[in-house]
Design brief:
Two copies of one chain form a homodimer.
Chain A lengths: L9 E14 L2 E8 L9 E2 L1 E4 L6 H13 L5 E8 L10 E9 L7 H6 L2 E5 L10 H18 L11 E2 H12 L5 H11 L2 E8 L7 E6 L1 H9 L7
Parallel strand pairs in A: 1-6
Antiparallel strand pairs in A: 1-2, 1-4, 2-3, 2-7, 5-6, 8-10, 9-10
Chain B binds a DNA duplex through helix 5.
DNA sequence: TTTTGCAAGTGTAAAAACTACATTAATAAA
DNA sequence: TTTATTAATGTAGTTTTTACACTTGCAAAA
């Protein structure tokens, strides 16, 4: 019966996290070599089970923290996966989340202990269960997000060059962008502070470093816009 | 432990459906007067519990069918709600879905038996639990969907006038649209068949009836576009 | 100290998209 | 046949977007 709580079936509820990072090589995801059955030794998203007294958002935060040591990370719920046999051991529904993290900030020791590893999104291994599908979904969502909210604060080091920002957008959208048009579009958002300092790694002339203007960035996060790149 | 299935907590998993319909009065949702405790007699979304051998999509389809008699309806998963006490009886996570239906097609008797009723989205009663939040989310998603996929096939009668289509978009986006610009933008999608037939209800001149070109409509459903109305 | 090489930085003109808007057309009812 | 009512239709002005190439500043090498 629809109105009967007592006769309804209970299920395991899991959370799986697609953790995005960005470095000079491009956009990456953090994967883990699974150390228990089933599928022991295969690559997988990091995940865990929801606890009785925990909301999904907090489960995702807890799991991320367990594997990376990070707090206060941007996460967003994506989708609930419920195929009957998606997990062969027991009926498990999994809710996916994605996180954006600065690849330099996480606890390296911790991720080594868990046999976790960063993989380029263009070059990631096959994953267990329906995790490939989850990653595809997350990439699509990340692309969409990029067109309505600013991005980068979570993924770039504090100081970065225009080129780095450009390359981040190119990696996410997986297409080349015109440098001049990109710069003027980004500038029109008014979320960047141009520093006097230059980064001299990349060229002899050196390129100006920028930081995000946190206040304006967060204001823009609240109010969606349309950004055609 | 993260890797232990046996010690993980199981929970009830519910599905709640935001069922959208459209008629001459505007955009509506189908609500039900709850006939069991808790919150008996209050208005609620249509919902039910996931069964052990059922995927979420099918649970949503089953629930929609139970209350409306309809099959083959466009539905889309939205979001998982997991606040600890969202359902006071027992820990229940609910996954929301939305459906688009032609308001004239459902089984009227059936919805009467269930004390279900259509409410204008601008004028709906307060709902139990977190169902108001679910409805808000669904409306936002419907608006977004409208900007990247064609809409109307699911919500309008087979033959409809341009004005009806315009009013549907206005109701969804909750803003006035310029008639001429709207028509040329819609026509540029090339998803409509203009019939020779006219609808004479609305005026002395009569207005042409259209149908959706199902093939092209479905082709557009697969490949997103950007439609600025 | 001069020259060389390298990526950074910068502006504009043409094309496309979008907006605002008012008159004529077709028909039924009086 | 006149009147009343809503449907149908096109364009000019503005804004946005796109495509594109040369100069600058610096460090390293000659």
């Amino acid at each position: 019966m629809l109105n009967s709580y007592s006769s309804a079936d209970k299920v395991l509820l899991a959370v799986d996290c697609i953790i995005f990072g960005f470095d000079h090589e491009g956009l990456k995801i953090l994967l883990i070599k699974r150390d228990f059955e089933p599928e022991k030794g295969k690559w997988s998203l990091i995940g865990g089970f929801l606890k009785r007294d925990e909301v999904l958002d907090n489960a995702a935060i807890r799991i991320l923290h367990t594997y990376t040591g990070l707090h206060d990370i941007y996460m967003e719920q994506l989708y609930a996966y419920s195929e009957i046999d998606r997990d062969p051991v027991e009926r498990t529904i999994s809710v996916s989340y994605y996180a954006l993290i600065n690849i330099e900030n996480h606890n390296t020791e911790l991720i080594q202990n868990y046999h976790a590893q960063w993989f380029s999104i263009t070059d990631a291994p096959n994953l267990i269960f329906d995790h490939n599908e989850m990653v595809d979904f997350a990439i699509r969502r990340l692309r969409y997000r990029t067109s309505i909210k600013p991005i980068g604060f979570e993924l770039l080091p504090e100081k970065f060059t225009m080129r780095q920002l450009l390359e981040l957008y190119e990696a996410i959208l997986s297409k080349e962008l015109d440098k001049r048009n990109f710069i003027s579009k980004i500038n029109s958002l008014e979320i960047l502070n141009k520093l006097d300092e230059k980064d001299m790694q990349s060229s002899r002339k050196g390129s100006y470093l920028y930081t995000f203007n946190k206040e304006k960035y967060e204001e823009k996060l609240l109010n969606d816009f349309v950004l055609n790149l």
